[in-house]
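3.2 Worked example (two chains)
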Amino acid sequence: MYGLKNLSLSLLFLSSVALAGKTTTIGFETKEESRGETVPLDECTDVFKEDVYTVFTSQFCRVFVGPQCTGKQTRLNPGEHNSKWPIPFINSVYCEPAGLLA
C-alpha cells in the first residue's frame, strides 16, 4: 500500500505540472486504492469517493459531502491531508489557483 501511494503521488505531481494552468490533480487514498483525478480549476467537479483516508491537493481546494458542491465543505491548503478515521463521502470538489482563496 505504501509503495502504491508513493507511485500515485509521483504520477500526481507529473500530471499537475503537465496540465498547469487550467486543471489540477487531486489524489484520494481509500483502503482499496490510491487514485489521482484531474479536475478543472474554477469549476465544481463531482468525484464520488467513499471512505477516504488521505487527500492530496496541489492547489487550494474545497471538498464537499454533497453533489455539485453542496452540503458541508472543508477547505484544504496544498499538501497531503490524512485522517485516522475514513471520511465517509467526498462527492464533489472545487479548486482554484494558489492565492485566490486566501
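3.2.1 Second chain
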Amino acid sequence: MRKPAPLKGISHPFLSIVVPVYNGGEAFQACLSAITHSPFRDWELIVVDDGSSDRSAQVAHQFGAKVLRTHRPKSGPGVARNLGAQAAQGQYLCFIDADCEANLNTLSRLAEALKSHPDLDAVFGSYDDAPKAPNFVAQYKNLLHHYTHQTGCEDASTFWAGCGAVKRSTFLAVGGFDTKRYPRPSIEDIDLGYRIKQAGGRILLAKQVQVKHHKAWKLNSLIKTDLFDRGIPWTQLLLNSRSGMANDLNLQVSSRLSVVAVYLLLLLGLSSFYSPQAVWGLLLVTIALLILNQDVYRFFRQKRDLSFTLKAILMHWLYYIYSGLAFLIGNYLHWQEQLGKDRAVTKTLFDH
C-alpha cells in the first residue's frame, strides 16, 4: 500500500497520536497505514519504540512518524506512552495500540467528540465487531470487548488506551501513566481514568470511535493476561480506590452475580455425584446464568452462528471462574499490603 507523504507545518496539532510499539510486525504497519490515510489531518504522529528487534522503527520512519526510543528495552507501554506525551505538541494526546487499526472515520469521530464537548478531559472508544484474527478465542475476546464497551455508560469512570484521547494538560496534571505500579502491560489505563475522575475530570465513552484489533489471542495467554495483568491488579485498584465499584462495563451487577452463580454451579456439579437432588439445583443455576447474560449471548448469536455462541457461553463461564479467583487473590494481596502498612506504623510508634 502506498504511504502518504509525511505532514508538514503543523507545529501545534489538535491531536498528538502516540503509538507504543515492541516488534509490531504486520499489525503495526496496518496501524500506521490507517492513521496516515485518515481524512482527518490535524495531527502529529509519535511512535515510541520499546526496544524492538524487528524493523518497527524503520517502518515508523517510512510513515513519517517522529520516532522515540525508551531508555531500556521492554520498559512497557506506560513508559513508552509517557515518553511520547513529553514530546507531544498537540492539545490532546491520542493513544492507539500498535495492534489496532483505525477505521477510516475513527480519528474524525474522535476529534468531533472532543470539539463538541470542550469540557471533556478524555474520550475512548472500543474494538469493532470484525476482529482480524480468525481463531475462536480471538473472535470471542474481541467481540466481548466490543459488546462491553458498546453497552457501557457514556459518562465513563475509566479510560482505555487501545484507542483513546486525553487532554494534554489533564494528563500532565494527574502524572500520566503510573509506571511504578504497572511496569508491564496491565491496567495502567484504567488507573489513569480513575485518577482523572477523582481529580474532577469528565470522561466520555464514544461508541462510534472504533478500531480493528489484530491480536490473535490464544487460550493460555488470554487466561494469564486476564488473571495476572487485569483481574488481580484491578481488584487491588478497586480496594485502594475511593471511587467504589461502578455498575458499568466489566463490573456490572449481573457479572458479579454470575461469578457467584458459576461457583455455585461447580459446587452443585460435584454434589450431584453424591446427591441426585443436586441436579435440580444445577438446572436452576444454569438457567439463572443464561438469564443474567442473555443480552450478550443474544449478541453473540446475532454476530456469529449457533456453534460459535455455544462455545462462547462456555468460554464466558470460564471467564467468570478465573475472575472470581482473581478477586480472591486480589483481596488477599490487598490484605497483606495493608497488614504490612499497619506493622510499619506500629514499629514507628514503638521506635518513638
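3.3 Remarks
The chain has two domains: 15-218, 249-351.
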